[in-house]
Amino acid sequence: MSESTQRWIDLRSDTVTQPSQAMRDAMYRAEVGDDVYADDPTVNRLQELAADMFGFEAGLFAPSGTQTNLLALMTHCGRGDEYLVGQEAHTYKYEGGGAAVLGSIQPQPILNQADGSIALEDIEAYIKPADDHFARTRLLALENTIGGRVLPQEYVAQATALAKAKGLNTHLDGARVCNAAVKQGLSLREITKGFDSVSVCLSKGLGAPVGSVLLGSKDFLKQAHRWRKMLGGGMRQAGVIAAAGIYALQNNVQRLAEDHANATLLADGLRALGLNVSVPQTNIVYIDIPAAQCAGLGAALVAAGVRASVSPKMRVVTHLDVSADDMRRVIDAFRTFLKP
Ligand SMILES: *Cc1c(COP(=O)(O)O)cnc(C)c1O
């Protein structure tokens, strides 16, 4: 398939979306200023909008979710401090060890349960006593959604309350927290309640080209602001990209339900072909592919105009640039490969 003549159905991630024309129009019109001087009215508007929608005092715009997570970890924890985190969590596993490398923060990874949670007993057991032998346990970091799974809301309340009771702060890696909220019919305020800080990606399912927002108290973000400058995240006329974030928060949250429906459509269709497929809670589907078939399937999908990361534990992600019709085409491509 020639890329120039036909559109790819790209299921590698929900980060692959193109800004829509309306989003581009908002970017084109954005009023800008130098955000390092806090002079960019559009960045300020995005930060205020996000803070209001999620129920926090303030927000801070940064280039990526990796950076907003790192800002949070470095603000909550100092040198020789420790954070409790899931083995599967993005901040631990997929951010290059940044907390340790750049923050001198020790991660204490803990096994994730099947539903993505960290058992309350484990949280309690891993908190270190005040003793010179140990790092100082300061923070509990959760992730919602985690691998596409929605943390049970009752669990979130219990885990954040336990952390509070033990004197720990709490951070939520909410890269896809809007998916979790829409799935459960909760407001963004309800789903992030109990956390001291939350990182939200604008560039995943929400469809903006760049950026994440860190939410917290004014005082917390004042410190995070200093780390952002140190890490090279101080941007200048960033209103051009912040405008896309505003558009995303105002237009693309509730529609995430379509992505969830498409994930279910795809999962059901592939399961009907005899494949072992996860039951998606949000926009991520996992498919078991026999190792011997991976190369062949990869080629068949490319031939059908489908981009996907084929592996024995294959992950596909739906987003606003794929439709229900596209899901049917993907199922057809699998069918043709499996039952030629
Ligand atoms: C994508 C993602 C991030 C980081 O976002 P980037 O903008 O790619 O740095 C953090 N946490 C989770 C759970 C993510 O999925």
What does this structure look like?
- The protein is α/β, with parallel strands linked by helices and about 350 residues long.
- The relative contact order is 0.17.
- It folds into two domains: about 10-15 and about 255-340, Aspartate Aminotransferase, domain 1, CATH 3.90.1150; about 30-250, Type I PLP-dependent aspartate aminotransferase-like (Major domain) (Aspartate Aminotransferase, domain 2, 3-Layer(aba) Sandwich).
- The longest helix is centred in the C-terminal third of the chain and has 16 residues, at about 255-270.
- It is built from 14 helices and eleven strands.
- Helix content is about 40%, strand content about 15%.
- The protein has helices at about 20-30, 40-55, 65-75, 90-95, 100-105, 120-125, 155-165, 175-185, 190, 220-230, 240-250, 255-270, 295-305, 325-340; strands spanning about 10, 60, 80-85, 105-110, 135-145, 170-175, 195-200, 210-215, 285-290, 305, 315.
- Helix 3 (about 65-75) crosses helix 10.
- Bound molecules: pyridoxal-5'-phosphate.
- Pyridoxal-5'-phosphate (PLP) binds near residues 64, 65, 173 and 175.
- InterPro entries: ArAA_b-elim_lyase/Thr_aldolase, Low_specificity_L-TA-like, PyrdxlP-dep_Trfase, PyrdxlP-dep_Trfase_major, PyrdxlP-dep_Trfase_small.
- One of its GO terms (biological process) is glycine biosynthetic process.
